[in-house]
Structure formats: structure tokens, C-alpha cells
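The freezer alarm interrupted the setup, so I double-checked each line after restarting. Inputs confirmed:
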Amino acid sequence: MTTLTQNQSDPFKFSEHYTGYPPFFTLQTSASARQAQLKRWSRLIQRYCRHYKIFQISIVDYQDKDLFRNAKLNKKLYPEDIRTVIDFMVSQDGQQRAEWVTSAKASAWIWWRRPEEWATSIAAWVDETGQKGSVLTLYEIVEGDASENQEFHGMDMEVLRKGLAVLAKQNRAQVFGTDDQQGVKFF
Amino acid sequence: MGNSGSKISSQDRAILDMKNQRDKLKQYQKKITVITNREKEIARVCLAKGEKDKALLALRRKKFQESLLSQTDAQLEQLEKLTSNVEFSLVQKDVVFGLQRGTEVLKMINKEMGGLAAVEKMMEEGAEARREQEEISEALAGQLSNQEEDEVEDELEALEIEMNGVSLPDAPNKTVITDGDLPNTPETELDREQKQKERAKQRRAQLQAA
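Predicted 3D structure, all chains:
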């Protein structure tokens, strides 16, 4: 599920390569140039998703959005190339900043924050607000008034679950309850 | 279901159920504000067209929805107290009952939700629309307490006065008058009681005539 809140009053600032360098949209053949280019795209995608609080992108949906298509330059990154970029992001080299949702490689999670990082951030908030030992619903963590100024506010439920799974493995939390009425207790 | 350790007690589960109800309620509150605002608008438009009955119906629905919400609010507060009670096992039965009651009310609220589309239907003319409106009227009859009925009629009066431009210092598109702050002709305690009695009489007469 993608969360898309295009913030018109605070538009995203694209990098220089995106705005002024057409070759940026064509995958380079030389190995070293390609590496650098992939890294740049990775950074751009992460920054963009972080800005708009997007957690998952589907290639079909995003290929014509401004993330991959620069209308002014009349240049776009084609779907096969988007796939290549995301493959890079999935790899060790790309620091595992992405994860394919299925092997069909149609959609991918974009970890501008990895689940482990979310786990830390949520655990810290729970601690600061003295909510350790209390039961919280998953809903209130991402939608409640209490978390409004936190970065994970409005976060995709799937991502929250992944973050909490990390904490559960560390025995710092346990999720319980059924379906979409789940809750979590922090220890 | 995560049943691995027993780090999650039955009290925890009860608290989760309670909090889930609270979350649902909060979501409804957000949605319902949109709807009740629209109901008030509709009442205004109907009044302007001289359709007093429709206006009254709109206000009645709004009042009913609001009363459902405040009922649940009160229940939730009660539940919260119960579930945080250290002697939880003693009050467990009460909690279960409270949760059940809460669910019933939420179901009612859910039915009211029909959404904006349902509310907009009130603006429609025609035989079918009128029949539907009568159905709703009947369903509502008896759902509002006498006091609530009074409040609805007060609201209608207030709307009428406001629309006939009686000395309002505010610009026409400022926010509307809420229940408490429109000073009608100075009413003494006696006047209010008199009004209530008269209205009760009228309602009985209407019921008998129906």
C-alpha cells in the first residue's frame, strides 16, 4: 500500500543531475559511471520517498510521475531501467535500501528508513512517553494524536508491523490480537 | 495469534479491545463531524425553501448522531477506569458487558454512517424520497429523549431567526450559532417550563393524529 501525500506547499527539491543533466536518465555503459549513477538514483528515490512519506512504489504507477520523469527535459527513466536501479538498491552494494514485494518485481518497498531503524525510533518514543508496559493499538501508534510529531506518524501499517517484528525478535515487544485490530505491548 | 509466552494477560487483551473501540470511535468522530455539518447546511437550505419538516428532520438526525457519540464517549471513560483497575479479575464481567454494550452502540453509529450520499438524499424531492424521509422520521421517533427533542426545536428556531437576519453582528459566513450562545427573547425558568409543556402537548397530539 502506498501512502502518497503530495505536499504542494513544500515541493520536493530535485538534484542537479535530475534537473540539468539529460544523460542521468539513460543507464551508462561504463561500469564506474554506472555505479555512480545508480548511487545517485538510489539517493534521489530515498529522498523523494522520505519527503512524501511514500513507503512502496509500483513501477507501473510511478514511471510517469515526476520521480522518474522530468517533463521539462522531456526525459524519463524507463521501466526496465527503474528495475535495474531498484535491483541495485536491494543489493548489499545498494545498502539494502529497497525490497521487492514479490518476485514479479512489480513493486518495491523503499527503505529510506529500514525496519530496524523504525524499530529503534518507535521504541525510543514509547520509552520517552512512559508507555512501556502499556498496551497500544497499532492504529494509535501511527494515527494517534500522541504520535503526531513523530516521523512514523501516518506510516504504512505493513512497515509498522515489520518494525515491530524486529522488536519482537529482540524480545522488546509482543504483538497480539487479530487482523487489523492488533495491539502491541512493549517490555 | 501470538500466544507464545504468557507475557500478555487477559487484562492486556481487554485493554486492547477497549482501545480498539476507542480508536473506532475516534474515527467515527472525525467522519461524523463532516456529516453533521452537512446536515446543518441542509436544514438551512430547507428552511429557506420553507420546508420546515425537512429541516427538522435533518436536525433530528444530527442530534441523534451526536447523542450516540456522547453515549459512547461516556461508556469508554467507564471502560477505561475498569480496565485499569488493579483488581481486574473482580471486574472482568463488568468489562465484558461494557465492551458488548459499546459494540452495540458502535454498530448503530455505523448504520448512521451511510455517509454523505445518504445525507444528500434528504435534498431530493419526489415521492420515493418523501417516503424514505418518513421512514427515517418514524425510526427516529422515540430515539430522542424529550430534552433532546426540545433542543432540536430550539436549534430550528435559532436557525430560523438567524436566517431572517435578526440583528446578528457577525458577517453572514461566519461560523454558526451553537446550542448555548444564542440569546432568544429573555426566558425565565418559568417560560422554559411552559414551552416544554406546550411542546410535549403538541407532540402527543401529533402522535395521536398519526
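Quick read of the result. The longest helix of chain A spans residues 31-52.
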